[in-house]
Amino acid sequence: MRAPGFWSNPPARPGWQALALAPLASIYAGATARRVARPPEVTAGVPVICVGNLTAGGTGKTPTVIALLERLGAQAAHVVTRGYGGSAEGPLRVDERQHGAGEVGDEPLLLSAFAPVWVAKDRAAGVRAAEAAGAGVILLDDGLQNPAVAKTLSVVVVDAEVGFGNGRVIPAGPLREPVAAGMARADLVLTIGGAAAQERFGATWGGAVTVPRATAHLEVLRTGMDWAGLRVMAFAGIGRPEKFFATLRAEGAELLRAEALDDHQPLSDALMKRLEIEAAALGAQLVTTEKDAVRLPSSFRQKVLTLPVRLRFDEAAALETALGRLGL
């Protein structure tokens, strides 16, 4: 599912669709409020850092988790995630040699290259499994609205370019819950984007952010690949595919075609064969994201290039202070 256009309207002009859907949004917000008010089922004996968001769709949680894993270093960090798009109920420790995206989801496969990852539809059971396996700190991926686990630190990740959209709750807007409600349970906000986007976010939403804020941007990981002048056909099934396409252009690639897929869309043999044929007709190289690459059929993994990105902090004092309080 792709987000309706009116979700990105300015908060002062949310659109007639948002106003018409306000009663349903109120019901959704009420249901979320009742759910998050439940007491936790498990309180771990190690710090639990929740990396979540307030909006539907991608905001940069996966690069944030990777950056935190790099920052935590030798702290024996484990990741617990629902494994969106995968069939496994868990708790299951991800093994990229045995598991595929259809079983555990694409993000867990990507994260498993950096740390032990547990897929668990029951987050409390996943945390128990990680702690029993020797985790010194647990990163709870996308668990802000899940009350099952007590959080030691909750980080709200925001795409600075889109902020909180029109400021309305699903289905009237992109929010999973009102901003004020989310801020009441957050310890830190991390906004991701370039300088101009960060400034716009501050002007539009700065007054709504009632907790310390850190800033970061995504940067291409230098692997020796020269993208300048390369004729490419790009495809991406992430929250905002246009960000990936813009990054390729910024790297100097000649983007002949950009195919935006649904978030987490399966990359079937039929779909990939079509893309391969169209790329050949254009004389272009197929390129995708790291997250999409783990969903590629095995026969296409040598045919598609990947553009990796990493999170780089611009202002991390608030994050370092929060981690310091945990002794990390």
From TrEMBL:
UniProt keyword Transport, yes or no: no
Enzyme Commission code: 2.7.1.130
Key word ATP-binding present: yes
Catalysis performed (reactions): a lipid A disaccharide + ATP = a lipid IVA + ADP + H(+)
Function: Transfers the gamma-phosphate of ATP to the 4'-position of a tetraacyldisaccharide 1-phosphate intermediate (termed DS-1-P) to form tetraacyldisaccharide 1,4'-bis-phosphate (lipid IVA).
HAMAP family from the UniProt entry: LpxK
Protein name in UniProt: Tetraacyldisaccharide 4'-kinase
Organism: Silicimonas algicola
